[in-house]
Amino acid sequence: MGNTxxxxxRKKTKRTKxxxxxxxxxxxxxxxxxxxxxxxxxxxxxxxxxxxxxxxGLEVDGELIGYIMCLLASDECxxxxxxxxxxxxxxxxxxxxxxxxxxTLQKKGIRHVFLEVREKNLVAxxxxxxxxxxxxxxxxxxxxxxxxxxxxxxxxxxxxx
Length: 161
Ligand SMILES: CC(C)(COP(=O)(O)OP(=O)(O)OC[C@H]1O[C@@H](n2cnc3c(N)ncnc32)[C@H](O)[C@@H]1OP(=O)(O)O)[C@@H](O)C(=O)NCCC(=O)NCCS
Fold this sequence. Notes:
Blueprint: E1 14-18, H1 24-34, H2 41-49, E2 53-60, E3 63-73, E4 76-84, H3 93-107, E5 112-118, H4 122-130, E6 134-139, E7 150-156
The protein binds coenzyme A (COA).
């Protein structure tokens, strides 16, 4: 009889946090690994410092592994940026972060949420549809790097919450 090894998946500690300037380098690292035309460090810094910004990060075992960045105006939210570190994708973290962000936005009194997504970004597109977004428009050749069209997506929270 050989030894039986019980492999246990250690439970990971997850928490969301507001992204701060101390996260800038890590956010920039994920950003560069995630997009063909990543935001510059300066643009990320401006967003983190913006009084109109709502920037939520997800930490796993103390390491920032993803973020979602939004601009708020009145009862509207525009999701500007959303990424998960490639090493951590496909494990539900993106869905969880988006879901927590949407809950928080609703509690803040946001009613309307907009975003743009590359037409060919099927992973993100499916994730947004699963989360309740609907395609409401198209911006032709929105992305300068590839000339791709952007789909405009919209979600509204029902009045009864
Ligand atoms: C979009 C993104 C944030 C999703 O993060 P994630 O942690 O991988 O998301 P999840 O693990 O919750 O997966 C979401 C869905 O996509 C699916 N998925 C994830 N990776 C996939 C892959 N490589 N191929 C196919 N499906 C995939 C998952 O199965 C899941 O679908 P399900 O809920 O039906 O099972 C991440 O892929 C990313 O950072 N992409 C690059 C940046 C980007 O495109 N951001 C969005 C800009 S609009």
